[in-house]
Write a structure and sequence with these properties.
Order of helices and strands: HHHH
Strand content: under 5%
Shape: elongated
Radius of gyration: 17 Å
Number of helices: 4
Helix content: 55-70%
Number of strands: 0
Structural class: mainly alpha
Largest sheet: none
Distance between the termini: 51 Å
Amino acid sequence: MLKEVAPELESIDNYALAGRYRYMEADPAEALRANHSARSRTREIISNLSEIQLNRTGFLRAPVRGITHYQRSHDQQHLAGMQWLLGQIDSQSTK
């Protein structure tokens, strides 16, 4: 979105992505480190953007600023799911 004029943003096939990254077999600590590293790179890029860059739009008609909010919400949903799963695992281990 930062380099093209009104680019078309592709939809992400989450199931294909999960298969490619083999999430079910991944070490949780390593997956969390990789996610943290990726988000750190994203934060670095975003923190250096101008107002004009933050307001650029793509096919979704969502400015970069809006997409960063979607991304944060998406991450929070995953974190909530992991917290729930850890609660389930801990509940099972006390039986």
